[in-house]
Amino acid sequence: MDGVRHDWRNQVPVIRPQLLNAQARETGISKQDLDNALLLNFSGKQIGIYRETSHLLPIIARAPAEERLHADSLWKMQIWSSENNTFVPATQVVSEFTTEWENPLVMRRDRIRMLAVLGDPKLGSNETADSVHRKVKAQVEAIELPAGYRLEWGGEYESAGEAQTAVFSSIPLGYLAMFLITVLLFNSVRQPLVIWFTVPLAVIGVSAGLLLFDAPFSFMALLGLLSLSGMVIKNGIVLVEQINLELHDGAAPTNALVHSCVSRVRPVMMAAITTMLGMIPLISDAFFGSMAITIIFGLGFASLLTLVVLPVMYSLLFNIRFDKQDITHG
Questions:
Q1: Which range (251-260, 266-275, 319-328) has the least confidence?
Q2: Residue among 202, 197, 196, 192 nearest 244 (CA)
Q3: Mean pLDDT score of the chain, rounded to an integer?
Q4: CATH number where 180 lies
């Protein structure tokens, strides 16, 4: 990995006054009064906001340049006591000014302090964030953390998980809408069921392709799998519609099944092959590679198996018995 870093900054020295509480109460000086005096005499105190069109500019109150103090003249500072309406020297209420080291920026997540360690895959290594995560996950999670600390994975891994969760939450409604459309298309329930029985066949090719190329089932692969559903359903619709046309022309159910599958082999396979060829250039892409592999292998296996499984399921649901003597050639 390159550019391994964290989002905290190096500690910086801070001059911190030690307030004498008893003397401060006697002179009417509070911690807030001391802070205001330090701000006015050094970096400045924001007392308001100036709006100019769409820009918001802070209004800063500071002592004149010739009156501003330096770190070596802190004891010359005068603190205004609102209770006594007078200035009080810092020497009366401050015992000492100590130098401490502290973090200038404290990062939080969900209001809990956190330290994010970041890194990028090496350029030219053909590594992706997902592949690097799989390689270092076991080693990172094996680190023993002190009590009260916990480890969480963020970055692209977290974004992909959130995206997958959002997609999976809408998948049932999407598939339900697609099923209802096929029911309305054929005005039947059994024929859409035959078509949808072929959708899981794509998983066989997807699994084989991802294992062959050692590719992760990433978010892009999930999108490819979802798009496969529409492609496989399209093939099933073509076959079932051809069967209906054969039956409408008076063909025997057995002949309709056989002739429909034989006549639709070329259109189904040509449509699948052209889609698969179009995805080949994306196989080597680090981002779209898993999606291309998913579509190529899933569509290839599903198209071949659809031509075999769909007529079998159709014959089972519609109780069509095959007899070689009933099959005519033409």
A1: 319-328
A2: 192
A3: 86
A4: 1.20.1640.10
Q: 302 and 204: one domain?
A: yes
Q: Whose CA is closest to 121, among 284, 285, 3, 1?
A: 1
3-state SS, 197-232, equals: CCCCHHHHHHHHHHHHHCCCCCHHHHHHHHHHHHHH
Encoded tokens for 231 = 């492609």
Q: What is the pLDDT of residues 158-172, one digit of tens each?
A: 887 887 787 778 888
Residue owning tokens 């969760």: 165
Q: For 34-62, what is the mean pLDDT?
A: 89
Instruction: Quote the CA–CA distance of 138 and 150 in Å, as a whole number.
Output: 15
Task: Examine residue 37 and state whether it is found in any structural domain, yes or no.
Answer: yes
Same domain, 56 and 164: no
Residue 308 CB neighbours (<10 A): 12
- In the chain, DSSP assigns E strands to 2-6, 12-19, 45-52, 55-61, 78-81, 86-89, 94-102, 108-109, 112-113, 117-120
Q: Which two tokens stand for residue 151?
A: 């480890």
Contacts 24+ apart (CB under 8 A), 134-143: 134/216, 136/1
Q: Which amino acid is at 34?
A: L
The number of distinct structural domains making up the chain is 2
pLDDT at 306: 86
Determine the Cα–Cα distance for residues 94 and 284; give it in Å rounded to an integer: 68
Q: Could you tell me how far CA 222 lies from the centroid of its own chain?
A: 12
Evaluate whether residue 252 is within a structural domain: yes
CATH code of the domain containing 85: 3.30.2090.10
Kindly state the tokens that stand for 6.
């964290």
User: Using 50, 70 and 90 to split pLDDT, how confident is the model at 295?
Assistant: very high
Domain enclosing residue 30, as ranges = 16-99
